[in-house]
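#onboarding

Welcome to the new folks! Below is a worked example of what a typical request in this channel looks like: someone posts a single protein sequence, and someone else replies with the predicted structure as tokens. Don't worry about understanding the tokens yet, we'll cover that in week two.

Example request:
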Amino acid sequence: MFKNSKKAYSEAKKYIPGGVNSPVRAFKSVGSNPIFFNKGNGSKMFDIDGNEYIDCVSSWGPLIFGHANKRIISKVNEASSKGTTYGASTEIETAVAKKIVEMVPSVEMVRMVNSGTEATMSAIRLARGYTGKEKIIKFAGNYHGHGDSFLIKAGSGAVTLGLPDSPGVTKNIARDTLIAEFNDLDSVKELFYENKNEIAALIVEPIAGNMGLVKPKKNFLSGLRKICDYNNCLLIFDEVMTGFRVAPGGAQELYNVLPDITTLGKIIGGGLPVGAYGGKVDIMRMLAPEGPVYQAGTLSGNPLAMTAGLTLLKMLDKEVYQKLENISKKIEDGWNKNIIDTKTDAHISRVGSMMTLFFTKKDQIINYKDALELDTDKYAKYFNLMLKEGIYLPPSQYECLFLSSVISENDIKKLILGNKKALEKLKDG
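Example response:
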């Protein structure tokens, strides 16, 4: 089934560390070799062996309109015919920035970068420059990219590979990174008490998506806002995944809690590499060339990513989000019924079109400790069984599904039936 992918992987390992350019692609946590793809169309992906899959990953979020959307592709082709990059200012950067400001409640100004990691790294530097303080708070199991400050008890690929603390992160950086427990306000208050007037920023995934999808408890986000205000600390929402996906204005719109700085990515590039961070005017004006906090990027705001992103953002409307909700709920309901019918120890966590099926006896997963107790071996078997049904899931229990608006009724039926078959086979051993 994967003859050509195995050959491609063997060749890749000669020239690329581990044969992949992002660790989760190695499929280590699901006990198999990576699949190599060469085509996507609508809700489907196709590997180099000719196998077809319903894509439930959407390139980790940006493909709300599926693969090779004709409108986006046409606009990108048009832009590329004029040149791929200029290393100079373009009007479309302003157009994208204006659109983001219009859509994201807390953002008054925005700076473009090239990845979510760049966005979070830059946001932390900006927060330190603005406040004059050095320490930050992050949450165990929250993943904010691969910046040194964030690879302390990180989620996503770090926990998948058993590398919660990465070699290469210095003791000084680790000392300035304080770890709180997600959904636990008392753990946050304790850190502020122990580090009075030293904390520049608290960064959080408002909906955690890198230990599987973990929802914020009621009043958790608003509680963080109050604690940060009391301690003169900036609140940073990492909305690289949730921005424009769970609502037009992201999780901050959904939960009505406004951060000081927001980091964005994925969707605003329309499938091309992108990142951004934005916030209040007085904070953002600290950035060079207006202020003393330096950050730069040769390809930041490049015309291809900006074109794709602006095209996608203009396509988002109430109907799209309603369609995403309808698709996601049908899949969730079908899978929940299958879980009950097969008496599987599992439950589903979902916000909008982001979703995770957790293999656990617990009623809910609320933090990193819960996530570490998940039955990852069972998920690995489940992943491979679903592959055989022509369904592509995240190759890790600690990652989210991202569903697209082009998933059809036939796709939904296949997803529900494939899930039932996989759960039945798991039950049979």
